[in-house]
């Protein structure tokens, strides 16, 4: 199977992967948050977009 870099960041819209720079950029833009806020919130709440959003709502 060929690795297609163009698809990175969009493969799983339910989870945020902060191990990949492309995913960090994608989610930061999609969720309209700075990259550091994104990474810190994922570390605190987990990779689920739903948990991430709930964490941000409770902590801003």
UniProtKB/TrEMBL annotation:
UniProt xrefs under InterPro entries? DUF3606
Q: What is this protein called?
A: DUF3606 domain-containing protein
Q: What is the scientific name of the source organism?
A: Flavobacterium hungaricum
């Amino acid at each position: 199977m060929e690795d297609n870099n163009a698809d990175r960041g969009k493969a799983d819209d339910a989870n945020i992967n902060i191990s990949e720079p492309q995913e960090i950029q994608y989610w930061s833009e999609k969720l309209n948050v700075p990259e550091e806020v994104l990474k810190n919130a994922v570390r605190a709440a987990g990779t689920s977009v739903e948990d991430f959003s709930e964490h941000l709502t409770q902590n801003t």
